[in-house]
Automatic annotation (TrEMBL):
Pfam family name, one: Mannitol_dh_C
SUPFAM superfamilies: 6-phosphogluconate dehydrogenase C-terminal domain-like, NAD(P)-binding Rossmann-fold domains
Keywords: Oxidoreductase
Protein name: Mannitol dehydrogenase family protein
GO molecular function: oxidoreductase activity, acting on the CH-OH group of donors, NAD or NADP as acceptor
Keyword Translocase found: no
Every Mannitol dehydrogenase C-terminal domain range: 289-478
The Mannitol dehydrogenase N-terminal domain, residue ranges: 32-278
PANTHER family: MANNITOL DEHYDROGENASE 2-RELATED, MANNITOL DEHYDROGENASE DSF1-RELATED
Annotated InterPro entries: 6-PGluconate_DH-like_C_sf, 6PGD_dom2, Mannitol_DH, Mannitol_DH/Oxidoreductase, Mannitol_DH_C, Mannitol_DH_N, NAD(P)-bd_dom_sf
Length: 497
């Protein structure tokens, strides 16, 4: 039996405290949210919070999910009436929740007009986004909109059939204004610093280019709250599908896997109504940026270090890498000595301890290669902002420099056991070319050449000879001795107790 509305009654009969299914009337849901970027993260995070408000009786918040590129999620979920299971796992317990909040899915390249139609529906009050870092078509270092990005250039020419999230948002806001409707709230849920402010600046830059009056209206009436989102969501495997089918008693073509932990901090400034997400555990605040910064630099910063250093050693998953004492110690010292001092939130030591407990979750099978993707888009906010803060204060940067050297070594495309892997990154061609061309030259040359890539490193970091020399020294050590021995060298520097 396939998961579907028709199957819900028999699933409800089997429901337990570990298997929860929607009991409300799904036909009464209004399309209050359009979500751009219908990936596993959204389905395991924001959709779960929204499900809570639907179960509590506020039926204004059905979600229309939009895939901006691929049709696979929509094709998997449409035959099952967009129902899917969230499988929450740690080493000791497992629970399943069938989510009913997703009411439709659209594939933007197949129907840009359909997407714009959903975004201009008077019921739609929120357009949320999980489009990943590269979906913002911005320079990761400066944050400026890349007007020469193919999708942005296209959307400036063909406004009625956009391709990028920014093109869709600006066009839909123009249509709403023309129809006498207010703007929707744009809710970025990506791992970017000041994600709402960032999206606002990009939206305004695009709108100014085409219609300054519209840009003024967005500036006046629009709302782009910053958010911090956190839940670890690994890729779904065939084994996961089989387990979910057995537990649920119905086949789900694309369930999502996740951990028990979930956090969502949202700035409470919306252009119109919003779901009472706080009743589902979200934290509504005046300023989400300190939370965002701490999460990006600590959780995501540690993740990227584990991804590159762990992959090079030959590990496959986060829990394997964090179980290696040398790796754990490295990441712990990096966070404690070089990241936490750059942050303003209190109680970071206990936050760090909680992160390591989450990373040790053996039931998640969270692949390092999944995290290793798109380093050029991720590292500026995950590592380089901490580096800059430390350089400014004359504070240590040794471990962040080591992690960066690890990334450069990772770009060679093979680990220390000889296994090869592909570099998945929008700048892959340029990065691998630099690394290949400088492989046999002095490590300082390799680092200097890489630091010339301004969209990642800006133009300030290459002007710090001490930092360049640090990265180069660690890169030379990693190349000569391997990660673990090179890490040992760090102890001789007496950096860590
Ligand atoms: C990860 C994040 O893939 C990655 O880059 O660091 O997706 C991470 O799992 C989430 O941000 C956790 O909230």
């Amino acid at each position: 039996m396939r998961l579907s509305n028709a199957a819900l009654a028999s699933l409800a009969a089997r429901a337990t405290s570990e298997v929860v299914v929607p009991a409300y009337d799904r036909t009464s849901l209004a399309p209050g949210i359009v979500h751009l970027g219908l990936g596993a993260f959204h389905r395991a995070h924001q959709a779960v919070y929204t499900e809570h408000t639907l179960r509590a009786g506020d039926h204004r918040w059905g979600i229309v999910g939009v895939s901006l590129r691929r049709a696979d999620t929509s094709e998997a979920l449409t035959p099952q009436d967009h129902l899917y299971a969230v499988d929450v796992r740690d080493g000791t317990a497992e629970s399943f929740q069938v989510i009913g909040a997703l009411i439709a899915s659209l594939v933007a390249p197949q129907s840009p007009a359909g997407v714009l139609h959903a975004m201009t529906d008077p019921c739609c009050h929120i357009v949320s986004l999980t489009i990943t870092e590269k979906g913002y078509c911005r320079s990761p270092a400066s944050g400026a909109l890349q007007f020469d990005h193919p999708d942005i250039a296209h959307d400036l020419r063909e406004a009625a059939a956009p391709r990028s999230a920014i093109g869709f948002v600006v066009r839909a806001l123009a249509l709403r204004r023309a129809a006498g409707l207010g703007p929707f709230t744009v809710l970025s849920c990506d791992n970017l610093p000041s994600n709402g402010d960032t999206m606002r600046a990009l939206t305004l830059a695009f709108a100014r280019q085409t219609d300054p009056v519209l840009a003024d209206w967005i500036e006046r009436e629009g709302a782009f709250p910053n958010t911090m989102v956190d839940r670890i969501v690994p890729l779904t495997t065939e084994a996961d599908r089989a387990r979910v089918a057995k537990q649920l008693g119905a086949d789900d073509a694309w369930p999502v896997m996740t951990e028990p932990f979930s956090q969502w901090v949202i700035e409470d400034r919306f252009a119109g109504p919003r779901p009472a997400w706080e009743r589902a555990g979200a934290t509504l605040v005046g300023d989400a940026r300190p939370y965002e910064q701490a999460k990006l630099r600590m959780l995501n910063g540690a993740h990227s270090a584990l991804a590159y250093l762990g992959s090079l050693i030959g590990y496959d998953t986060v829990d394997q890498a964090i179980s290696a004492p040398a790796v754990l110690n490295f990441v712990e010292c990096m966070l404690r000595d070089e990241v936490e001092p750059t942050l303003s939130l209190p109680a970071l030591a206990s936050y760090r301890a909680e992160l390591f407990t989450r990373f040790r979750n053996t039931a998640l099978d969270h692949r390092l290669q999944q995290i290793a993707t798109d380093g050029s888009q991720k590292l500026p906010q995950r590592w380089l902002e901490s580096v800059r803060a430390n350089l400014k204060r004359g504070a240590p940067t040794e471990r962040l420099a080591f992690a960066l050297a690890g990334w450069i070594a990772y770009l060679s495309g093979h680990d220390e056991t000889g296994r090869t892997y592909a570099i998945a990154d929008p700048l892959a061609a340029r990065l691998t070319e630099v690394v290949r061309a400088t492989l046999h030259s002095d490590a300082v040359d390799a680092v200097r050449t890489l630091f010339e890539i301004e969209s990642i490193f800006g133009c300030d970091l290459r002007a710090h000879p001490r930092f360049v020399a640090q990265v180069a020294r660690h890169l030379a050590a990693i190349r000569a001795q391997g990660i673990v021995k090179a890490m040992d060298g760090l102890y001789r520097l007496r950096l860590c107790a």
